[in-house]
Amino acid sequence: MKIGIDIGGSHVGIGLVDEFGNIQQKKEKYIVEKIENESQISKKNLKEEITQFIIQTIKEYQKMDFVENVGIAVPGTVNQTTIIKAVNLGIENYEITPIIEKETGTKVKLKNDAKCSALAEQKYGNFSECENGLFLCIGTGVGGAVIYNGKVLEAKEVPGFEFSHMIIQKNGLQCNCGKRGCFEIYASLKRFKEKIAYEFNLTTLRNEEIIKIILNNKDDVRLKYFLNEYIENLAIGISNLINIFEPEKILIGGGFTDYKEILLEPLKQQLLTGNLLFNKRNDIIIQLAKFKNDAGIIGATLI
To answer: Which domain holds residue 248?
Structure first.
């Protein structure tokens, strides 16, 4: 058995995964639940909280079965031992693997979360017969990976590809990375949820509460505006990537998958019938990742 760990912007998921990519056991820990608490989180304490949860869970799983190794999917830039920069967690240059290896006696590997998800979908999921594909992980932030000629495209040097920080608005909103107008600041699910929560006086960003508000207020003018604005910005960023890579298939994972009935079809329509694509194509497949929000956990075991 292997352990796959997905560190997200709002929660950490840890799974005990078998040789066929099936999650046999899973534990989750939410690290950001309420809007008012987010700005008060100590980044030092957050690192320690995440690390201790990982160590504790690995030890629990080791009592249940033999653990071959551990893989960690991280939303940001990493090398073999270190989280170099995870913008939405406020973590930089954190050498995490030696700490976990010392406490658990198990080999630990790191990889970008979107690339882990793409690996999972390539081996077990919706990229299994795809030579050229684009994976987008949309949640607290926006991550991306490319399948090119049957392989996950890797940069020669760190940091590699950061689709989330391409500019889609000149002099736009300030991103957590310090730049303005980044794709992520307009297309992250977090920002979408924050706008709705603010307008409807919610104190939580939990998906079930946001979805309830959307479904109960379908005719609300403000809500329609937010939905259209979000889809438009998301489509602009994705169309840029399509124009560059020309994928045959696009998979979307992360928290976005919880909003399939609300967001996926409007996004498809915006991309395929709008004026965003250089090559007008109707054959691009746009769908959710087979493993939805678990793709990172499964893919982390394939590092």
So the answer is: 129-289
Q: Is residue 243 part of a domain?
A: yes
Q: What is the pLDDT of residues 14-62, one digit of tens each?
A: 999 999 999 999 999 988 654 444 444 555 688 999 999 999 999 999 9
pTM value is 0.90
- Structural domains in the chain (count): 2
Cβ atoms within 10 Å, residue 31: 18
Give the helix ranges, DSSP H, for the chain.
35-38, 43-64, 97-104, 113-124, 183-187, 189-199, 207-216, 221-245, 265-273, 295-300
Structure tokens belonging to residue 30? 């939410």
Here the tokens at position 41 are: 């989180």
Among the listed residues 157, 154, 158, 138, the one whose alpha carbon sits nearest the alpha carbon of residue 146? 154
Chain centroid offset of residue 22 CA = 20
Paired residues of 4 in beta bridges: 15, 71
Which CATH number characterizes residue 178's domain? 3.30.420.40
Q: What is the pLDDT of residues 150-160, one digit of tens each?
A: 999 887 665 56
